[in-house]
Design goal:
two-stranded antiparallel sheet, about 45% helix, binds adenosine-5'-triphosphate
Length: about 525
């Protein structure tokens, strides 16, 4: 039997996994039964990107709002009709916590009667088999997959299949959802589902779509990896105008959107977490009049998306202004400013910047300046015992990086001259060999401590770990912008040439004999031997 907890753990991002644990803890404390459901399960099993986390509880999640907030979640909206909380979990993880419920449709075009239910009943009101699965997160049954409609088999067959014949009649937003999923996954509809779809379309059931479903489906576009493809598919099916009567692909800034998604991928490849949803909405509606944009915004249920989209241009202008000012007068200052800005803003500005200098700074930030880190003389730093074990190492490495960025260390020699005073004193001499033991046995560990490689004994433990990457500013995970980030003035050299350190580790003038760095050879082995 498949181990779905293991699959979940390896497929979710670390932040998503923490999010699952957070929600699980709140539910456990409150004594409610919790399941991971819907698209999250589909994506975990199918291998597609897991965009958000859908949870279902047997109980009323609205009552848990305060508990979630205390645990670190932010409320981004709620739907009182189906008792759903929209949350942002730490690390910018989107989550929905819904109540397990039934939906009874009595009349076409009328909203269903909603009633609390068990998870099994809840799965029956869902749209497609691939979305009608639940993974238990409860003690005793954790890891049990509920798959009453054989969703796993349909994922394997790559098919979209409705759960019953009236699916599109009951909730015509499923027509839009079918089109969206088919465009995203390139999965066709199963034959009978396709027939039901065609007949629902012909009978114009879509006219009965509810307002809240329209809002939900608009917001979903913002999170598509290829929104243009989905929007084109919706337009072809005549559903884009259902989301807003004036919305067509002609209203989309296709160049901007394409550039945005391309740049986003480049940024993600560098290790950043960036949420492009607000920028996606900006480009999707770029050529619509303000009034239409305001109408569209009003329908979206998540206020975090509305606000981010509304403010994106102003925030980008602000960042552009700072990038043209004193705060970004040097490469190192610019680096600090961009490192502390929200990746979402940097992404948006990278695509929209009108000023050449701003565009160039952002380009350098993502390309050229990153190569500067390769100029850190790691082997020599290892020889000097300037390794990550030193408490001052992050600062030293960062200072060198900043000085290299600003061209204040212009050569390898200058860089070494700057670094030498930071070398710590050499390790203490080895203890005298004990009498009575074989000379080899006593000498070997002593020689290792002294930093001499010993034949057959692995490497010098003091020298080995310096292979570590210098601690460049970690990709900011949607970090809040710093008010006034400044480059580290302490690292500023007094004169033009090689900079003089001021207050790191006590500078030592000790010269170490040249030792061969052995940093790249299996550090694991070495530690075992110790
Ligand atoms: P996405 O990857 O686009 O987020 P998703 O399947 O998670 O896909 P959501 O809109 O977040 O889509 O919905 C979560 C789950 O709620 C779905 O997987 C599905 O089980 C159920 N659902 C959503 N909308 C409907 C609907 N109109 N009818 C039936 N079930 C629905």
């Amino acid at each position: 039997m498949a181990d779905y907890i293991y699959t979940m753990e390896i497929r979710l991002t670390p932040d998503q996994l923490k999010g699952v644990n957070l929600v699980q803890e709140v539910a456990r404390t409150a004594g409610v039964t919790l399941y991971l459901t819907g698209g999250a399960i589909r994506d975990i099993i199918s291998g597609f990107t897991i965009r958000d986390l859908d949870f279902t509880v047997q109980g009323n999640p609205l009552k848990l709002q305060k508990d979630f907030e205390r645990a670190g979640a932010q409320l981004a909206g709620h739907d009182d009709d189906v008792r759903t909380l929209f949350l942002v979990l730490p690390g910018n993880v989107r989550a929905e916590i819904g109540m397990a419920h039934t939906e009874i449709y009595e009349k076409v075009g009328k909203p269903p009667a909603v009633a609390p239910a068990s998870i099994q009943e809840d799965l029956r009101r869902r749209d497609f088999t691939v979305n009608a699965m639940a993974l238990s997160l409860n003690e005793g049954s954790r890891g049990l997959l509920l798959d009453p409609f054989n969703g796993v088999a349909d994922i394997e067959a790559k098919l979209l299949r409705v759960l019953h014949n009236y699916s599109f009649v009951e909730d015509p937003s499923r027509l839009i959802r079918a089109t969206r999923f088919a465009a995203r996954f390139h999965w066709p509809m199963e034959e009978r589902t396709q027939q039901r779809y065609d007949s629902a379309k012909e009978n114009k059931y879509i006219e009965h779509i509810s307002k809240s479903a329209v809002g939900h489906e608009i917001a979903q576009l913002a999170h598509e990896d290829d929104p243009l493809n989905v929007v084109r598919a919706l337009e072809k099916e005549e559903f884009l105008k259902v989301l807003h009567p004036h919305w067509t692909t002609a209203k989309v800034d296709t160049n901007g959107l394409t550039q945005l998604m391309k740049t986003r991928q480049q940024i993600v490849d560098l290790g950043y977490t960036v949420d492009p949803s607000a920028a996606v909405m900006h480009f999707l509606t770029a050529h619509l009049p303000e009034k239409d944009i305001a109408d569209i915004r009003k329908q979206i249920p998540r206020k975090d998306l509305i606000e981010a989209w509304r403010d994106i241009e102003d925030h980008a202008k602000e960042l552009a202004k700072r990038l043209m000012g004193k705060e970004a007068a040097t490469p190192s200052r610019t680096w600090n400013l961009l490192s502390s800005a929200r990746p979402e803003m940097v992404l948006f500005l990278a695509v929209t910047a009108r000023q050449q200098s701003v565009a160039l700074k952002i380009k350098n930030f993502f390309t050229k300046w990153r190569d500067v880190q390769k100029r850190l003389p790691l082997p020599e730093m290892t020889e000097l015992l300037i390794t990550p074990q030193l408490p001052e190492y992050p600062k030293i490495a960062r200072d060198v990086f900043m000085l290299l960025l600003d061209g204040k260390l212009r050569s390898h020699t200058e860089t070494l001259k700057f670094l030498k005073p930071f070398a710590p004193p050499p390790p203490p001499p080895p203890p005298p060999p004990r009498r009575g033991r074989g000379p080899k046995a006593a000498a070997a560990p002593a020689a290792e401590v002294a930093g001499k490689p010993v034949k057959g004994k692995g490497k010098n433990p003091a020298a080995a770990p310096a292979a570590a990457i210098p601690p460049l500013p970690a990709p900011a995970k949607s970090a809040k912008p710093e008010a006034n980030p400044k480059p580290d003035s302490k690292a500023k050299p007094k004169s033009k040439g090689a900079a003089k350190p001021s207050q790191h580790a006590k500078p030592s003038t000790t010269q170490h004999p040249a030792r061969k760095p052995e940093v790249h050879k299996s550090p694991g082995k070495k530690s075992k031997k110790r």
